Description:
Layout: H1 2-22, H2 24-30, E1 37-42, E2 52-53, E3 58-59, H3 60-77, E4 81-84, H4 94-103, E5 108-115, E6 125-129, H5 136-157, E7 161-166, H6 170-174, E8 179-186, H7 190-197, H8 199-222
Parallel strand pairs: 1-4, 1-5, 5-8, 6-7
Antiparallel strand pairs: 2-3, 6-8
The structure holds zinc ion.
Zinc ion binds at residues 43-44, 50, 60, 113.
Amino acid sequence: MKRYWILIFSIPFLLMAAVKNGNPKVASVVSSPGAITVVIDAGHGGTDRGTRSKQPFCEEKRLCLQTARLVRKYLDQLGYHVVMTRNNDAFVPLSRRVEIASQSSSSIFVSIHYNSARSPLVEGAEVFFYDSKENQKRTISSKKLAEAVLPSILRRTGFASRGVKKGNYYVLRESAMPAIIIEGGFISNPQECALLKSIDYQEKIAKGIADGIDRYFKGSKSSL
Ligand SMILES: [Zn+2]
């Protein structure tokens, strides 16, 4: 009997906790003080729209932000501290994005983009890292991160793999921490574009990215 009273007594507190966790502002505050900081970079923004398609209508900058917000939500739930380089439709210079990552003492930099090709048949997801000759440690970690995130995306979305690749992009080259660019699918492919726009796919890719990041950190911990 005593147990039932404890249960009934604790219901209001459980409800309060549930409401609290539903609020993203509170959720980021309650993440533990020792939480790992992760920078999520939604590509493009403002006047820089990225790649676009007319049929179905799709703008890269919007998709990137939508995915980035969902990734933040899932990483919050996993106990990470997430810093966004943009959280609205603003133009943020690449140098500022790198600066945000350095100032937040982030452990990794994850940039989210969508792709475009001349042929409407090109499809699939790919992840880039920078091969730094001066900082091989960062190169190895960036590659490890890419290799954790890509399979995780593919498992969730069922998309074709275009592999983990080396890329000489500003944010990858200039970041001080392990960094990757995710190209989550082709806006120039009408079938893939229709999928990319769906909330179902957005949730799948975001969960895939968050799981992959989590796997990267857990893998690094166990290899210590
Ligand atoms: Zn892009």
